[in-house]
Specification:
The complex is a heterodimer of chains A (about 300) and B (about 425). Chain A is an alpha/beta fold and about 300 residues long. In chain A, about 35% of the residues lie in helices and about 25% in strands. The two termini of chain A are about 30 Å apart. Chain B is an alpha+beta fold. Chain B folds into three domains: about 70 residues, Dna Ligase, domain 1 (2-Layer Sandwich), CATH 3.30.1490; about 130 residues, ATP-grasp fold, B domain (D-amino Acid Aminotransferase, Chain A, domain 1); about 200 residues, Succinyl-CoA synthetase domains (Rossmann fold, 3-Layer(aba) Sandwich). In chain B, a hairpin with a 4-residue loop joins β7 and β8. In chain B, α2 crosses α3. Chain B: This is Succinate--CoA ligase [ADP-forming] subunit beta.
Chain lengths: ~300, ~425
């Protein structure tokens, strides 16, 4: 499914009735996301009330036993998953089996074998997974009048619409970059996640923005571990017509130490920030030394695009 | 989570993969007893979680008890590549006829599992790949596929196992895959997978795993209670052991600026900023640690974090970098202030807030009037100030730094004023360098 969801896309929340699920479902509703249901077999049949908007009007969101029931009743096309790691695989499988087209997995700490299985299954069925271990997906209002939607935990109110696309492995660095470039604005922010295997890679996210007419320039935030940045650089060099600017975190990270994210580890001299920077620069993608400097490079690129 | 060879060996043996008779020994006496049980000749191998131990002198062939003692006296105190040797594995010596290399690992790029193998095993696979790239075969196992004996046999053939070894190799591949899956591994490597036996007696020849490396997925620990025996606290940095007990994501580094932030990416970025500032200022100041408090704004998390960071005697300043997303900076500010109550350290703490309620958070810190606190508007400035504070042996030096404009857009919390105020002018400085 195209990641450019909007306010019409019907969304369900798996794990809605938990603490995180409740808080973020409230936020997503507030942001205009069309949440049509929650999934929890033990609370099926309940209605959960959320207060939304300045007038505090009440919205009752039904809870279903399974994704399939939720889809049958509501026509849900996307799901956001907040369940704990040990239940994440069955939650993903349930969504895939139900034919949910876009699955955003916020959960951190999922065993990588579980993710690998679900991602491969989803890919074989043409289903998109974003994450796991990600802040989610935020789309902003578009020129055709469609409003955006917020699927996940990215804070609202930092940015408005504009010509930038943002891709990031990290949560708070996403917000930092959104803040740095708030005056210019974004089409969408895609948090791809910090796990070793993710459903949407940096390359696939680049492709989304390449295909999106309203996006003019893309900012990509990477970090140590794996080859996703190198893969993205190689892809961009031959496929990307729009400018890309990058920032990489973790130059100071020592070998063999996991820096918070499960995927953020330099091992056997591979996955270093320096190696990623060099690969990106060799592909013509400038890399900022700090998030602020990367934001400055974005401004330069954008001026270049406008001058063209 | 990386395992020692002796632990990896246990996991292979549990799948009926042939390994030499071997016993783990922590002391020289234990090693002698082990060697006598196994029989001479045998091999004494350093247990250490790093490669190239043979080249480093961590492996010895021994023929009697005296030689075992001599090998242990040399190997046990060794440190290889910064890793202290943790006991030895005493293993029966084998007559090696040929060496293969086989590994199964998680492939992050293709999002499946990689089988890497060569008929020219024995050394590090990277070196083989460099010298004979054509001889290293890379095959994939999909997460969805059923990897059975037929598939394993086809794989063994395409790897190029010698004809007589193909059936046995297929069995080994199958068992390795089971070992990989059952244990939630991210790497199972056998190097060498050796053909051993009497060269003149075909029936004595068999494949045997002479050395192994296994890494496990820490995210899967909730379904592997048995992994508790793999915990390696004695070899883990004591600060990291304590931090883990407190549930904090902490990595101990070797510098002077303690770094605390919310979000792994932001903390890594803060470390880079501190290193950059140290270089720019011509000091050797570097970050002392990585500490991600996640969404945790509570005073408990902040107190535990400051406790850990400040218990490192190298730490001369602390940089707290918070981008308030969902978390409000006001909550984080109150967490910091509560944590500071009763904290005896006088180490200066530089705070940078941005995002949700950053203004309110800053004001709260200002009003608290704590001489240890300083606030900076940007991450770069905060990194520079914390680096310069860490490099200053005395108050006088800090004054000097600030007169040179290092912290021109920063202000000491006490008497904070949008327009100006240098650190030197602030009364807060009085208590900074002094003992408390």
């Amino acid at each position: 499914m195209n990641l450019f969801v909007n306010e019409e896309t019907p969304v369900i929340v798996q794990g809605m009735t938990g603490h995180q699920g409740m808080m973020h479902t409230g936020r997503m509703l507030e942001a205009g996301t069309r949440i049509v249901g929650g999934v929890n077999p033990r609370k099926a049949g309940l209605q959960v009330a959320f207060r939304v908007g300045d007038d505090g009007r009440e919205m009752a969101i039904p809870v279903f036993a399974t994704c399939s029931e939720a889809k049958a009743a509501t026509g849900a096309r996307a799901s956001v998953i907040f369940v704990p790691p040990r239940f994440a695989k069955s939650a993903m499988l349930e969504a895939i089996d139900a034919g949910i087209e876009l699955i955003v997995v916020i959960t951190e700490g999922i065993p990588v074998a579980d993710t690998a299985y679900c991602v491969e299954l989803a890919l074989s069925k043409g289903i998109s997974i974003v994450g796991p271990n990600c802040p989610g997906l935020l789309t902003l209002p578009r020129k055709d009048g469609k409003k955006g939607a917020n699927l996940g935990i990215i804070p609202d109110g930092i940015v408005s619409s504009g010509p930038l696309g943002l891709i990031s492995k990290s949560g708070t660095l996403t917000y930092q970059m959104m803040g740095e470039l708030a005056d210019i604005g974004f089409t969408a922010c895609i948090g791809v996640g910090g796990d070793p295997i993710v459903g949407t890679t940096l390359t696939e996210a680049l492709q989304c923005f390449e295909d999106d007419a309203e996006t003019k320039t893309v900012v990509m935030i990477g970090e140590i571990g794996g080859n996703a940045e190198q893969d993205a650089a190689a892809w961009a060099e031959t496929h990307m017509t729009k400018p890309v600017v990058a920032y990489i975190a973790g130059f100071t990270a020592p070998e063999g130490k996991q820096m918070g994210h499960a995927g953020a580890i330099v091992s056997g001299g591979k996955g270093t920030a320096q190696g990623k920077k060099e690969a990106l620069e060799a592909a013509g993608i400038p890399v900022g030394r700090t998030p602020s400097q990367a934001a400055g490079l974005v401004r330069e690129q954008l001026m270049g695009v406008e001058a063209r | 989570m990386d395992l020692y060879e002796y632990q990896a060996r246990e996991l292979l043996t549990a799948q009926n993969i042939a390994t030499p008779d071997a016993l783990y020994a922590k002391t020289s006496q234990e090693a002698v007893a082990a060697a006598e049980r196994i029989g001479f000749p045998c091999v004494v191998k350093a247990q250490v979680k790093i490669g190239h131990r043979g080249q480093a002198g961590g492996v010895a062939m021994v023929n009697d008890a005296v030689e075992v003692e001599r090998a242990c006296a040399r190997i046990l105190p060794m440190s290889i590549g910064g890793h202290q040797v943790n006991g030895v594995l005493v293993a029966a010596a084998k007559n090696v006829l040929h060496e293969y290399y086989v590994s199964i690992s998680l492939d992050r790029s293709s999002r499946d599992f990689d089988v890497l193998a060569t008929a020219n095993g024995g050394t590090e696979v990277e070196e083989i790949a460099k010298a004979h790239p054509e001889s290293v075969k890379r095959l994939h196992i999909s997460a969805l596929e059923t990897f059975d004996l037929d598939a394993a046999r086809r794989m063994a053939q395409s790897i190029g196992f010698y004809h007589a070894d193909v059936d046995q190799a297929a069995q080994v591949l199958l068992k390795m895959w089971k070992c990989f899956k059952d244990n939630d591994a991210t790497l199972v490597e056998i190097n060498p997978l050796a053909k051993v036996g009497d060269p003149d007696d075909e029936s004595s020849k068999s494949l045997c795993a002479l050395d192994a490396k296994i890494s496990l997925d820490a995210n899967a620990s909730f379904r592997h209670k048995e992994w508790s025996s793999f915990r390696d606290d004695a070899q883990t940095d004591p600060f990291e052991v304590r931090a883990r007990e407190l549930g904090l994501h902490y990595v101990h580094l070797d510098g002077q600026v303690g770094v605390i932030g919310n979000g792994a990416g932001l903390v890594m970025s803060s470390l880079d900023a501190v290193s950059g500032a140290g270089l720019q200022q011509g000091t050797q100041v570097r970050p002392a640690n990585f500490l991600d408090i996640g969404g945790g704004a509570s005073s408990d998390v902040m107190r535990a974090s400051l406790d850990i960071v400040l218990s490192d005697p190298q730490v001369r300043s602390v940089f707290i970098n918070i981008y308030g997303g969902i978390t409000s900076c006001e909550q984080v500010a109150s967490g910091i202030l509560e944590a500071l109550e009763g904290l005896r350290s006088s180490v200066p703490i530089v705070v940078r807030f941005d995002g949700n309620e950053a203004g309110k958070g800053v004001r709260m810190l200002e009003e608290a009037d704590d001489s240890r606190l300083r606030v900076c508007a940007t991450m770069e400035r905060a990194a520079q100030l914390s680096a310069s504070l860490a490099a200053s042996p005395s108050v006088a030096d800090i004054h000097c730094e600030t007169r040179h404009g290092v912290s021109s857009d920063t202000a000491v919390v006490q008497g904070h004023d949008e327009s100006a105020s240098s650190v030197a002018d602030a009364p807060a400085e009085e208590s900074m360098g002094g003992a408390r």
